[in-house]
Amino acid sequence: MKIFTTANELRQYLVQLKASGAAINLVPTMGALHQGHLSLIQEAQRRGGAVICSIFVNPKQFNDPKDLELYPRPILDDIKKLEQINCDILFNPAVSELYADNESWHLNIGELEGMLEGKFRPGHYQGVTHVVHKLFDLIKPDTAFFGQKDYQQFMVISHMVAEMNFPVNLVMCPIQREPDGLAMSSRNIHLTPDDRQHALILSKTLHWVKQNFNPNNIQRLKHDAEKAIRDEPGVELAYFEIADGDTLHSADNNTKKIVALVAAKVGKTRLIDNVLIG
Ligand code: PAF
Questions:
Q1: CATH fold of the domain at 2-173
Q2: What CA dihedral angle connects 117, 258, 130 and 82, to 10 degrees?
């Protein structure tokens, strides 16, 4: 695997690669790689061409400095994992390589900015779009892969791509789960054994809503789901929403594409999860 830490070296290498006709697939990550990330890389590999994984803990998307400080950064392990699955290129820049001092950024992402995750993490999607824009601009990928776990993030990035006419195809890959249902996340390592058990209420409740879904009973389902999560010890619910999968507005009995989304603090760790219904 080729490893680049500077934008210039990566750019030069990509000129040759693109000249050889290879399609460029990008999997942007913040590292602490787990099977969820690796499944994105494997999907990219299945489609052919070269696969670039970026690992960059993006300070601009953290609204809590403590969260940024605690974010896991096991780079040597990550490199091993990428080598084991034959990833072609790793881009692992320092913060100063991607951002100049006092750089400003604002993208109009409409109402998505203040909904669900956006409401609880002000500025988060500005930070995400800032870095993804930089990566797209530098790498100019043909296709970029993101996980369904960050469902709203995928919508925000799709919005940016449409708004800015980026010639990139976006692919959303399914959530990878532990055998007991917990959605894989780099943050799961912060869960204590007790938290880990309590965290299962999130995937269980999403699964229950999917199994019991009835378009005429959405309010009742949402109410019961919220109650189940609130009743779980050690879990502090931020939101549970049964929403239109295209707009994230609350779903009603005419909504065709439905997604149930949840965010909660389990112990000290904030987790998100979702499930597509129908
Ligand atoms: O999903 C993530 O890991 C991050 O938000 C992303 C897309 C790599 C941007 O930093």
A1: Rossmann fold (3.40.50)
A2: 100
Rg (CA), the chain: 19
Q: For the domain bounded by 186-270, which CATH number is listed?
A: 3.30.1300.10
> Is 37 a catalytic site residue?
yes
Residue 278 has pLDDT above 90, yes or no: no
Q: In degrees rounded to 5, what are phi and psi of residue 266?
A: -115, 110
Atom 5 (ligand 1): residue with closest C-alpha? Answer: 128
Average pLDDT over residues 89-94: 99
Using DSSP, state whether 45 is helix, strand or coil: helix
What value does the mean pLDDT take over residues 68-76?
Answer: 97
| Atom 9, ligand 1: residue with shortest CA distance | 128
Every domain of the chain and the residues it spans: 2-173, 186-270
pTM: 0.97
Q: What is the tens place of the pLDDT at every residue in 235-275?
A: 999 999 999 999 999 999 999 999 999 999 999 999 999 99
pLDDT tens digits for range 190-203: 999 999 999 999 99
Closest atom of ligand 1 to CA, residue 54? 8
Shortest-distance Cα residue to atom 3 of ligand 1: 29
Ligand 1 centroid to 98 CA: how many Å? 14
Which backbone phi and psi does 63 adopt, to 5 degrees?
-95, -5
What is the DSSP secondary-structure string of 58-119?
Answer: -GGG-S-HHHHHHS---HHHHHHHHHHTT-SEEE---HHHH--TT-------GGGGGSTHHH
Which amino acids bring their CB within 6 angstroms of ligand 1? 28-30, 58, 61, 128, 131-132, 150, 153
